[in-house]
Structures are given as structure tokens and as C-alpha cells.
Design goal:
The chain has 13 helices and 19 strands. By secondary structure, it is an alpha+beta fold. It is flat, with a radius of gyration of 26 Å. The two termini are 29 Å apart.
Length: 493
């Protein structure tokens, strides 16, 4: 390996800290591979470097589950063709930058921020040459308006409505309205599925679309289009169904590409997750007759990766807080996390078959040495107690420099190896102390935990947790003999 290659790899690791993975190959063909994740994009670019690189061109491959195969191949071929003009000089950074430019120009692999930026660019119009022909589009009721209408209008049977929403990896998916809990987020813990409302593309009443963002159709309120309202649709369902079928027969099929499904709602949650949908699922035995549970199990995470909290001082401090809560409200006893199960979640996964579980175990062990180099030497400090939406009480974490980069590195490695990450919310390092459940909430008459039960511990120091290992854990109710979650694999540093 040349000094030039070594210097470029060092530079790339620094430039893309937390978004770069370097694996030493040690073969006669490739000396190492360098995988880079462009900022805020759901894809990775892998450069396999020959021993003689940069005199010889790298082999480039791209993994992007959020893109169509032909788009991936087009970008891959574009980057590979550029390598011949970059020989004998550093090229990985420039090629990554070119990939980002191409992705943004084509509306692919974009983050919310970049999508928002492109959206503003599209609103820039040429100087008006004919003011007479330009009309401002009528304001259309938003997805949030439709949700609230279905929720609170007693004349609308909720079980007859379906929601079409954009899944980042699977495209447009449908789910029954009653499958969701349409309240503000109740928990950001690992057994919660959260979907931003701006991903909603349409609503159906039975088989009829009654609101469609792209088509600017609103037959719920009648704010745009024909002026038809949902009460008219329900009253004349048979006639409207035939009309809808006739119209759909002449429609040009739309694609699931992100460029076409950008938010036109102009609602307050189009740029953030302020208003999000939360689903807390239950298993069903018959997916064909129990639609909500079937879809929840398909989409919700079922495994997670975590740092186990074994420190006895932390466990004792946590038990003190829990005992105080239970002494004042005994119903919360079953809501407390046992000391033997305390943990810090790093990310949540979707492993729907035993084969996928086995694959995750192999991948976790294979990336152990790579992650070890990124593990912060300083511990996590548990200092203070707070809550998520008054439903989850947790210990706040003061984390050392490099911890978030370490978590990003873990996520990137998993994605590149084909492990599905089902995180649906921003990563907030925390250790859950207790979380209310629906049965307890019903008995209490409220889902909110009274802050007075733990406010005396707001500034309590609980202790420190070393980042000494990562555990793959099942979200099921079963526990190991030592009280921790069923863990088919773990790695120690």
C-alpha cells in the first residue's frame, strides 16, 4: 500500500467521522474497503481499494434500500466511469460529493432537510410574463385535519378508513386507521413505532380514495376539487365506488419515488416529527381477519441493540427511585424496569425470521474489532431524572465525546451488511426507569405519570456505565435466567 493511499484513508476517516467504515482486506487484489455514508442519506458507497490504489481505480458498489435498482446501477456506473479521470490522486471524497450532487438533483436518498431545501428551490418561479394566467392554488385541508375529523366525528366509522403512507424502504403501504394510536407520542422507547404525518399520502373510505395529497383531492372536507364531502361519499357509497373505479382505470400510475411525494400540505409537521403517529402493537393469530395487528407486526421493531447496565450502584439508585414511586402509587409496580434488565438502547431492528436473527448475530460478531476502535474510553454518566411525554420516566445520560459517532458507526455497519434498522425517532441516550402500560393507564384513569412521584430525584446522580459490550436483545416478554432480555448474541470490548 502506498503512502498516498494511507494518507487519503486517514483523511477520509477524519472527514466522515461516524459515517465511514474501513475494513482491512489483506488480499492480493484489494488491500482494504472504505464505506462512506453521505450525510443525512440512507445509502452507503463502498470503495474497494486495490493494493496499487490510487494508481489503479477502486471498485465501487452502492447499497441503498430506499432507491430503485436501476437508479442504484446508474449512480454506480457514473462513479465508476469517473475513476479513470482521477487516477494517481485522491478521489473518494470528490466521488462521494459528486454522488450527493447527483442524488439531490434526482430527488433520491434525500434527508428531510435536503428535501426541504429542494422544496424551497422548486417554489422559485420565473418572472411573471402573463399575470392573467397565473392563479394561486386553493388551500387544501391537511392530513392532520383529516385525522382529527375521523377521530372526533361520530358519524365517521373509523374502522372503515385506511391510510396510505410512504415507507422509506418499501414505498407506499396501506394500513387501517384503527391500527394507529393517533395521540402525541407516548414513548420513544424501543417498542414504539412512530410515523411522521407528512408521510401520509392518501386516505380511503373502504375502497374509495377520499383524500389524496398528490392529486390534490379532498372529498373529506371538500376544500378543493368537486366540493364533494365525506358525508356524501358515505351516503352514496355504491355510486361513488363505481365512479372511483372508472376514474382509476384512466389514471397514469404514479411511482413511489421521493421526488413525487414531497409534502404539499404546508402543515406544521411537514418538516419535523412534532405531530407523529404512534402505534403500540399486539400480536394477532389471524392476519387476514385482524388487519391492525398484522400490519403492526410487519412494521414495528422486534429486536434492539443495547449496553447492559450491570453496575450495582446504578441498580440500587434506580431501585430507590422506583420504590418511592411505587410507595405512592402501587399500581406502577409492574411498570418498573427490573434492575437486572436495565439497559441503554442504541438502535432498534426488524428481524422477522430466524434466518435474519442468525444473520444479525454473525454481523454483530464480525464488526466487533471495527467497533472496538470507536468505543469511547470514558463511561456514560447517569445524572438526573426526566420523562418522555409524561409516559416514560428515565435517567438522563451525560455522554463522552465520540459516543454519538460510535452509535452512528454501529448503525452504518449494520445497514451496509443488510440488517434492517427500524428506528423511527431521534436518538436520545437514556436509561428507562419505568414506563406506563395501557392496562395500568386504564385503571389509573390517565396515561400520564404524576411528576410529583419522582421530582425529588430530578438532579439525582445514579452512577456510571462503562461501554464494555453490546447485546442483541429480543423485545419479547421472556427473560434469561439472570433476568435480562433474551440475547442471542453479544460482543465484549
Amino acid at each position: 500500500m502506498s503512502e498516498q493511499q494511507e494518507e487519503e484513508v486517514r483523511s477520509i476517516k477524519e472527514e466522515f467521522k461516524g459515517r465511514c467504515r474501513v475494513v482491512e482486506k489483506g488480499s492480493d487484489v484489494f488491500s482494504r474497503s472504505v464505506t462512506i455514508q453521505p450525510k443525512d442519506m440512507d445509502l452507503t458507497i463502498k470503495f474497494q481499494l486495490p493494493t496499487s490504489y490510487p494508481k489503479a481505480a477502486p471498485k465501487i458498489s452502492i447499497r441503498a434500500e430506499c432507491m430503485e435498482e436501476e437508479d442504484v446501477l446508474e449512480l454506480q456506473e457514473l462513479l465508476q466511469s469517473r475513476t479513470n479521470g482521477c487516477l494517481n490522486k485522491p478521489m473518494m471524497k470528490s466521488l462521494t460529493n459528486e454522488a450527493e450532487t447527483w442524488l439531490k438533483a434526482n430527488g433520491l436518498g434525500k434527508s428531510k432537510k435536503s428535501a426541504k431545501g429542494n422544496k424551497h428551490k422548486k417554489k422559485q418561479k420565473k418572472p411573471r410574463e402573463d399575470k392573467v394566467t397565473i392563479e394561486k392554488l386553493a388551500s387544501m385541508k391537511t392530513a392532520d385535519d383529516v385525522v382529527k375529523r375521523i377521530q372526533w366525528d361520530s358519524d365517521l366509522p373509523q374502522e372503515d378508513f385506511l391510510v396510505g403512507y410512504l415507507d422509506r424502504f418499501l414505498g407506499i403501504k396501506e394500513k387501517y386507521f384503527t391500527a394507529f394510536s393517533w395521540e402525541d407520542i407516548a414513548s420513544v422507547d424501543y417498542n414504539v413505532l412512530a410515523i411522521p404525518k407528512h408521510r401520509i399520502q392518501y386516505f380511503k373510505y373502504k375502497d374509495i380514495k377520499v383524500w389524496d395529497k398528490l392529486a390534490r383531492l379532498d372529498n373529506v372536507f371538500g376544500s378543493v376539487g368537486s366540493g364533494t364531502k365525506i358525508t356524501d361519499i358515505i351516503a352514496n357509497y355504491d355510486q361513488e365506488l363505481e365512479k372511483s373505479k372508472a376514474e382509476n382505470a384512466t389514471e397514469i400510475p404514479s411511482t413511489d419515488n421521493n421526488e413525487q411525494v414531497e409534502d404539499d400540505d404546508n402543515d406544521s409537521d411537514s418538516d419535523s416529527d412534532d405531530g407523529i403517529i404512534v402505534t403500540i402493537g399486539t400480536n394477532t393469530t389471524n392476519p387476514m381477519t385482524s388487519h391492525p395487528g398484522y400490519w403492526q407486526d410487519k412494521l414495528r421493531p422486534n429486536y434492539f441493540l443495547a449496553i447492559r447496565v450491570n453496575d450495582s450502584a446504578v441498580q440500587e439508585a434506580t431501585s430507590e427511585i422506583q420504590d418511592n414511586i411505587v410507595a405512592n402509587q402501587p399500581l406502577y409496580r409492574e411498570c418498573c424496569i427490573p434492575p437486572s434488565a436495565l439497559h441503554v438502547t442504541l438502535c432498534t431492528l426488524g428481524l422477522d425470521t430466524q434466518e435474519q436473527v442468525d444473520s444479525a448475530c454473525r454481523v454483530l460478531k464480525s464488526i466487533r474489532d471495527e467497533l472496538k476502535d470507536a468505543v469511547p474510553t470514558q463511561p456514560l454518566v447517569l445524572n438526573g431524572v426526566s420523562n418522555f411525554y409524561s409516559r416514560v420516566v428515565y435517567a438522563k445520560i451525560e455522554y463522552p465525546n465520540g459516543f454519538l459517532d460510535f452509535v452512528d458507526q454501529l448503525s452504518m455497519c449494520l445497514r451496509h451488511e443488510g440488517i434492517e434498522i427500524r428506528d423511527q425517532h431521534e436518538f436520545i441516550p437514556h436509561m428507562t426507569i419505568m414506563k406506563t402500560s395501557r392496562p395500568v393507564s386504564r385503571r389509573m384513569g390517565t396515561a400520564n405519570i404524576d411528576k410529583r412521584l419522582y421530582e425529588q430525584f430530578t438532579d439525582k446522580y445514579l452512577g456510571e456505565v462503562d461501554i464494555s459490550g453490546i447485546y442483541l436483545c429480543s423485545m419479547g416478554d421472556e427473560r434469561q435466567s439472570d433476568g435480562f432480555y433474551i440475547s442471542p448474541a453479544n460482543i465484549q470490548f
